[in-house]
Amino acid sequence: AEMDILLEGSPISTDELWNNATYPPMGSFPPLPPLLVNPWDILLCSSGTLIACENALVVLVIWQNPALRAPMFLLIGSLALADLLAGLGLVLHFTLAYLLRSDSAQLLTVGLVVASFSASVFSLLAITIDRYLSLYYALTYNSERTAAFTYTMLVLLWGLSLCLGLLPITGVNCLAEESTCSVVRPLTKNNVAVLSVSFLLLFGLMLQLYVQICKIVMHHAHQIALQHHFLSASPHYVTTRNGVSTLAIILGTFAACWMPFTVYSLVADYTYPPLYTYATLVPATYNSVINPVIYAFRNQDIQKALWLVCCGCIPARVAHRARTPSHV
């Protein structure tokens, strides 16, 4: 039997109700509410948290261990401190951007991030210079003159990084004129271009220094091998070859992380989709995640200090491990 429903006292069949019903056209439904938080910003914040935790451990170990005061460890500490501040800057930028939504807060956090990442790149260059000098002037490397040169490099690199970080705060920004913005607001196109060109110059200098390091190391290994009257089977040759491979990995990792964002920021401006900026900026932050692994956690003296901090002992395999050229 046909089912009827009572509507205002009149029986209306179910078929009539469906036939007379009106529906909104396709696409007229209200859109879903936009995401409150950009997933890319969450990724940057997560990366900053990991960076801060890793490098805080390195800074703590070097700070608490009086034996880690050689120029090499001071430079590694400078690198870790720069990356630590960069990680904190990413976290603060995320927090203040979604809580305060203030231009002043944005300028402060962007300035901190610029200064920190600049100090990180400059510290990498200083470490490369230190490694080159330790091989070229092997007999006088631990002199007081070397320590003074190291302190001079630290003062210069942090002073220059601070100046670069202060530029957005002191008025070199695009808040007043949107057309001058770069891919990273509120940095101007000219500001980012200067940073990118400086990075390319520093990368070229680091590449040249690492080529010289490889030549010196290979020359030393060849001389040792000739003294033993064999070359390809020499353990010194094998470990030196590993050391050269390590240098290639270090430089390749640095270039893979920073080069995409550097090149993109030179050719793009604020009109480009933000997706491209995030896609090139996120890998650049990963360099600060990798730095402690390459420069700190692989170092035997820092490894021993880490074991002492974590468990109060040093495993025998760590205590008696021989240092090889692959740890250059």
Question: What does this molecule look like?
Answer:
With 328 residues, the protein is mainly α. It contains ten helices and two strands, in the order ββαααααααααα. It has a two-stranded antiparallel sheet. A hairpin with a 2-residue loop joins β1 and β2. α2 packs parallel to α8, α6 packs antiparallel against α7 and α7 runs antiparallel to α8. The longest helix is centred in the middle third of the chain and has 39 residues.
Residue fraction in strands: under 5%
Total helical segments: 10
Quaternary state reads single chain
Unreliable sequence segments:
1-10, 21-33, 324-328
Strand count, sense and closure of the main sheet?
A: 2 strands, antiparallel
Fraction in helix: over 70%
What are the secondary-structure elements, in order, as H or E? EEHHHHHHHHHH
Strand order of the largest sheet: 1-2
Report mean pLDDT, rounded to a whole number: 81
Main location: membrane
Domain G-protein coupled receptors family 1 profile: 54-295
Keywords: Cell membrane, G-protein coupled receptor, Glycoprotein, Lipoprotein, Membrane, Palmitate, Phosphoprotein, Receptor, Transducer, Transmembrane, Transmembrane helix
InterPro entries: GPCR_Rhodpsn, GPCR_Rhodpsn_7TM, GPR_3/6/12_orphan
